[in-house]
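Q&A log
Question type: sequence-to-structure
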Amino acid sequence: MAPRANWKGFLRLSLVTCPVALYPATSESEKVSFNQINKTTGHRIKYARVDAESGEEVANEDIVKGYKVDTDTYIEVTKDELENIALESTRTIEIDEFVKREEIDPRYIIRPYYLTPDGKVGHDAFAVIRETIRNMDMVAIGRVVLTNREHIIALEPMDKGLIGMLLRYPYEVRSESEYFDEIQDVKVRKDMLDLAKHIVEQKSAHFQPDKFEDHYEAALVDLINSKRAGKPITPKERPRGENVVDLMEALRRSVGSATEQAKPKKSRKKPRKTTSGQREMLMPIAGKKQPKEAAAKKSPARQHRKSA
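Response status: OK
Response body:
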């Protein structure tokens, strides 16, 4: 079942318009998540919206937005007033300009979305816009309203659809000078640079995200399975960082280590594939034996019958 669209409206390039739907390109639903519970009772914690002064719970229909002016003063803004100032981009992604992909500073990228035609109508117009962007080898810049806020979105072709990268505004990006000004100017020796380049060459590869493993997620699954099985939890010894005294010697050792890692390893059996892409959460049911354990207990009996 396809996920629900975050936004539906129209994509417009000058006089060419088509209905489109915007879907989130990423998901964190597969990750292990926790609830807050009462340590004493084991019950889940529930939060209520209460008046800060009276302490009484407030109904949803009585809650409005307010802009804080000072400690005790707020300017109330109603839903109707917000809808009254809604922009055209609430219903339409208007393509304003085209830029080169390499000109987009990665600091401005927030998150990716998939853009597809909405319904049976508009596929021709969508294809015209998509192929125009593809043939020009450019990125289309437009505006879209999500969660009552107007965002800048960069659109580029991906297969039969479009991928849209939500972008930040300049006031949301901090200047690098706040952090980099105090970094010392160091002249790197050529022999050190040559060794470091050699390490990079030995570790060079193609970007293959399928190789990445979320080690923390795997550790969480192991922790939960161990606690469910009643196994004792023992803290692991953490590696200690060491100060680099001789940088040249550290580079030489790194070259040797990279060479060892680059050697082909013996092939191992492929692990059983799980549907989630991460480690399987084991949930044994009380009172039922695992198939392997049951088979192991039956085998001695069979051997006894044969010997008899």
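Response note: The mean pLDDT is 82.
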